[in-house]
# Entry
Amino acid sequence: MNVNITAKKIQVPSDFKEYAQRKLTKLDRFFGAEGDAKITLSSTKDIVTLELTVKHNNLIFRSEQTAAEKNDALDSCIDRIIRQIRKNKTKIEKRLHSAAFADAFNDEVEEQPEFQVIKHKEFILRPMNIDEAILQMNMLGHHFFMFKNGETGDVNVVYRRDEGNYSVLQPLK
# Structure
């Protein structure tokens, strides 16, 4: 698995890089050598926030954990990703290495009901800029808002992040 470690306002010791490589071998049974793992570390006061993103075959698994120690946060993130894979095993099994699941889980798999869509909504996308979309989302009291970007003409989604900031999702060209 390819591992890329990025740090914001923190130094990454070489022993953490080795620890991360060793721990991420747990995920090799699902992704093999083709998986790409990105670890982003940031620090505020005595707390470390670690974000782990694993990409393989157009699937993205992401986990974020805050802890006092980098190693503890990494262990929690890896466990979360394994739980995500187990929870959605039947849906992603076809896209990952099928043989990896045969030995990895045995009979530990939880039965998951199919997703039930309870509402379909259609609406007109009006062109607006990102600030207008955020204002509209806040006025509606929603956590996300889909709009047509007036500058690019693309359909974008703006959403409120857990820490209170905003992000925009836009398609690649």
Notes: The two ends are 28 Å apart (CA to CA). Helices lie at 14-23, 28-31, 70-87, 89-92, 98-104, 130-140. DSSP finds six helices and eight strands in the chain. The chain has a mean pLDDT of 83.
